[in-house]
Design brief:
Belongs to the D-isomer specific 2-hydroxyacid dehydrogenase family. Keywords: Amino-acid biosynthesis, NAD, Oxidoreductase, Serine biosynthesis. One of its GO terms (molecular function) is phosphoglycerate dehydrogenase activity. It is an enzyme of class 1 (oxidoreductase). With about 525 residues, the chain is an alpha/beta fold. The protein folds into four domains: about 110 residues, Rossmann fold (3-Layer(aba) Sandwich); about 180 residues, Rossmann fold (3-Layer(aba) Sandwich), CATH 3.40.50; about 140 residues, 60s Ribosomal Protein L30, Chain: A (2-Layer Sandwich), CATH 3.30.1330; about 70 residues, Alpha-Beta Plaits. The protein contains 17 helices and 22 strands. The strands form four sheets. A seven-stranded parallel beta sheet has the order 8-7-6-9-10-11-12, with helices on both faces. The protein has a six-stranded mixed beta sheet with strand order 14-13-15-16-17-18. A hairpin with a 2-residue loop joins strand 17 and strand 18. The radius of gyration is 25 Å and the shape is globular. The model has no long low-confidence stretch (mean pLDDT about 90). Bound molecules: nicotinamide-adenine-dinucleotide and 3-phosphoglyceric acid.
C-alpha cells in the first residue's frame, strides 16, 4: 500500500483518483510547519502540494520512502529540485491546468484598473455616490504589451484581440511566424515599454526576468500606462513601480503576486489608491484546482506504480555504464549551453551539438540534455534534464547531434552551435588533464577560458587602445578584471575579448561599455 500526503487544500474532486485507487491510502493535512511535516513525512511515498508548502531539503532528508513530490500547479520554486534530484525523488507539476484561470484573472485585473472597480466599490459601500472620480479608459484600440508569450501570455493575447486591442509580444522563443499566426506584433521590451497602454508579464522569475521592468523601462513608458503582474513577484521592480506612479508615468497597477508573500503590513502597494492587489489567486478557480489535482494524481499513480510519466521536472535514471562515461562532461556541457544561451539574442531555431573523440562511442543523449538545459535555463522556469528536450521541441527548436571519432586537437571535444534568424554562434569545450573544464573556441577564435563566474563577452574592431579603454572603464567602476583573453583572425579585423571579473558589472557599466564606438556587442554572462 502506498501512502500519499495531500497538503495545501488541493481539490478533493481532483484527487478522487487517488481515493479510488486500491493500492493507495490518502491523508489530507493543511498548514503544517516544516518541523511538523518532518515529524510525519517518513511514512509517505508521495507528497502533493500547491505553493504554500515549502518542500525543503530537511523535509526530504526525513523522508526515506518518498518517491514523488507532486506540485498541483506550474511554479516549482517552492520545491528544492536539486535536493529532490540528489535523493532520486521525482518532482512533477501540472503545467496546463491553471492557464485559463490565470489568464482570466489577468483580464479581470486589466479591466479593474481600466475602470477603477475596486476603488469605486470601496467608496460606494462606504456610503459615497462618487460619479466624477472614476472616469476610466476603454480597452478597445489600446496597445497591450505582453512580456512572456507562453501558455498564459498566448491566451491573454487571444482574448485581447477579441477586445479590439492591438497586441505586442516579447518572448525569446517567439518566432515571427508564430507571432503572425497569433496576430501579435513581435517586439522588443523597449518597444513595448515605449508604445503600450497596458503591459502584462507572463514569464517565470529567473535571473533574466528579475526586475526586467524597473526604473529605466518606466522612464521610457507612455504617460498613463497601466501595469499587471499575475506571474511572479519580482519580475516588476516594486519600488520603481511606486516611483513611476508618484511621477505620473503609471496610471494604475494590478498585482496578484509579490516579491515577498504575504507582503508586510506596511508594504507600499497596500495603501496606494492606484494599485489593486489580490493574494496570489491566479490559479484559484474550481476548474483550475480540479484540473491540476487530476493531472498530478494521474502522474503520481504512474510513478508509484513504476509506469511511464510525462511531467517530471527533475532527473531520470541513466544506465551506470553511460553515467560513468558521461558524468565528467555534464557540468561542462551545461556551462557551454549556458554560455551560448546567454550570448545570443532572439528565438533559437536550431541547436547543433557535435561530439568528437572518445565521446563519439557513447550514447550521448544524457549529455545533450544537460547542454540543452543550459541553453534554455536562462529563459524558462523549471528546466531540467528530464524536460529540456521536450521544451526545446515544443518551442520548435531543432536539436541536431553530430559525431566524429577523431578530434584534430583534443582527445574529446564538445562543440555547440546555436542558430537564430539573424545570428549563429559557436562555443567548444573540453576536459584538459590537470586543468579541468576549458572553453577552447568561441566562434572562429581559439581561446582558453575556465567556464565559471562572471564573464564579459565583447565583440569589437581590432584597433590599438581598445583593451585599455575597456580596462579603464571597468576599473573606474570598481569592476576588477580577473582574466582576459583576446581572439582575432586578422590584424584590424573583427575580434573578441573575454573577461572574467570578480563581480558582475552593473547595467549602467554595461551601457557605458556599449557606448564605446569600437565595441560592436557586449554580453554579460554568469556561469
Ligand atoms: N498568479 C498565479 O497564481 C499563477 C498561476 C499560474 C502561473 N503563474 C506564473 O505565470 C508564469 C507563466 O506561466 P505559463 O504557464 O504561461 O508558463 P510558460 O512556461 O508556458 O510561459 C513562460 C514564457 O516566458 C518566456 N520567457 C522566459 N524568459 C523570458 C524573458 N526574459 N522575457 C520574455 N519572456 C520570457 C518563456 O519563453 C515562456 O514562453 C509562471 O511564472 C508561472 O509560475 C502564476
Ligand atoms: O505557479 C502556479 O501554478 C501558481 O503560482 C499557482 O500557485 P497556487 O497553486 O499556490 O495557487
Amino acid at each position: 500500500m502506498f501512502k500519499v500526503l495531500v497538503m495545501d487544500g488541493i481539490s478533493d474532486m481532483g484527487i478522487q483518483l487517488l481515493y479510488d485507487a486500491p493500492d493507495v491510502e490518502v491523508d489530507k493535512k493543511n498548514g503544517l510547519s516544516e518541523d511538523e511535516l518532518i515529524a510525519i513525512i517518513a511514512e509517505y511515498d508521495a507528497l502533493l502540494v500547491r505553493s504554500a508548502t515549502k518542500v525543503t531539503e530537511r523535509i526530504m532528508a526525513a523522508a526515506p520512502k518518498l518517491k514523488v513530490v507532486g506540485r498541483a500547479g506550474v511554479g516549482v520554486d517552492n520545491i528544492n529540485l536539486e535536493a529532490a534530484t540528489n535523493r532520486g525523488i521525482v518532482v512533477i507539476n501540472a503545467p496546463d491546468g491553471n492557464t485559463i484561470a490565470t489568464c482570466e484573472l489577468t483580464f479581470a485585473m486589466m479591466m479593474s484598473i481600466a475602470r477603477s472597480i475596486p476603488q469605486a466599490y470601496k467608496k460606494t459601500v462606504g456610503g459615497e455616490w462618487d460619479r466624477k472620480t472614476f472616469v476610466g479608459v476603454e480597452l478597445r484600440s489600446k496597445v497591450l504589451g505582453i512580456l512572456g508569450m507562453g501558455r498564459i501570455g498566448g491566451e491573454v493575447a487571444k482574448r485581447a484581440k477579441a477586445f479590439g486591442m492591438e497586441v505586442m509580444g516579447y518572448d525569446p522563443f517567439l518566432t515571427e511566424e508564430r507571432a503572425e499566426q497569433m496576430g501579435v506584433k513581435l517586439s522588443s521590451v523597449n518597444d513595448i515599454c515605449a508604445k503600450a497602454d497596458f503591459i502584462t508579464v507572463h514569464t517565470p522569475l529567473t535571473n533574466e526576468t528579475r526586475h526586467m521592468i524597473s526604473r529605466p523601462q518606466f522612464e521610457i513608458m507612455k504617460k498613463g500606462v497601466r501595469i499587471i503582474n499575475c506571474a511572479r513577484g519580482g519580475i516588476i521592480d516594486e519600488r520603481a513601480l511606486v516611483e513611476a506612479i508618484d511621477t505620473g508615468i503609471v496610471a494604475g497597477a494590478a498585482f496578484d503576486v509579490f516579491e515577498q508573500e504575504p507582503p508586510q503590513a506596511d508594504h507600499p502597494f497596500l495603501n496606494n489608491p492606484k494599485i489593486i492587489v489580490t493574494p496570489h489567486l491566479g490559479a484559484s478557480t474550481v476548474e483550475a484546482q480540479e484540473n491540476v489535482a487530476i493531472d498530478v494524481s494521474e502522474e503520481v499513480l504512474h510513478i508509484l506504480r513504476n509506469e511511464p510519466f510525462k511531467n517530471a521536472v527533475n532527473m531520470p535514471p541513466v544506465p551506470a555504464n553511460v553515467l560513468n562515461a558521461l558524468q565528467p562532461y555534464f557540468n561542462l556541457g551545461e556551462k557551454l549551453g549556458a554560455f551560448l544561451g546567454q550570448s545570443i539574442e532572439g528565438a533559437v531555431s536550431e541547436i547543433v551539438v557535435s561530439f568528437s573523440g572518445d565521446l563519439a562511442d557513447v550514447d550521448t543523449t544524457p549529455l545533450t540534455r544537460y547542454i540543452v538545459k543550459g541553453i534554455l535555463a536562462n529563459q524558462l522556469e523549471g528546466v531540467n534534464i528530464v524536460n529540456a528536450m521536450h521544451l526545446a521541441k515544443s518551442r520548435n527548436v531543432n536539436v541536431v547531434t553530430q559525431k566524429s571519432a577523431s578530434s584534430k586537437t583534443f582527445t574529446n571535444l564538445v562543440s555547440l552551435t546555436l542558430k537564430t534568424k539573424n545570428e549563429q554562434r559557436l562555443v567548444a569545450g573540453t576536459l584538459l588533464a590537470g586543468y579541468g573544464e576549458r572553453i577552447v573556441q568561441i566562434d572562429q577564435y581559439p581561446v582558453d577560458i575556465a567556464p565559471s563566474g562572471n564573464l564579459l563577452l565583447i565583440s569589437h574592431n581590432d584597433k590599438p587602445g581598445i583593451i585599455g579603454k575597456v580596462g579603464t572603464l571597468l576599473g573606474n567602476n570598481d569592476v576588477n578584471i580577473a582574466t582576459m583573453q583576446v581572439g582575432r583572425k586578422v590584424v584590424g579585423g573583427q575580434a573578441i575579448m573575454v573577461l572574467t571579473t570578480d563581480k558582475p558589472a552593473s547595467k549602467e557599466v554595461l551601457q557605458q561599455l556599449e557606448q564605446l564606438p569600437e565595441l560592436t556587442q557586449v554580453r554579460e554572462l554568469s556561469l
